[in-house]
Amino acid sequence: MKTFTDKIKKDQEIEMLPEYDLDFSQSRPNKFAPILKRQERLIHIDEDVFKVFDNSEKVNNALRNLIKAMPKRN
Questions:
Q1: Burial class (CB in 10 A: 0-12, 13-18, 19+), 5
Q2: Where are the alpha helices (DSSP H) in 11-52?
Q3: pTM for this structure?
């Protein structure tokens, strides 16, 4: 019994199998792309940090204060 890999070994010039021949003539631009570009960036924080800084305003204020306290780089 021939397997798919046997067929590929014989015919190395296969670019795309017929079942993957997709028709893009009906495709449309992603209507959610502008929303995704404006979307906030997500970061993962540990549970103990989240208990203190439970919203983005608190996190941003703490980080801004930390940046101000850091020595300036030359």
A1: exposed
A2: 33-38, 47-52
A3: 0.44
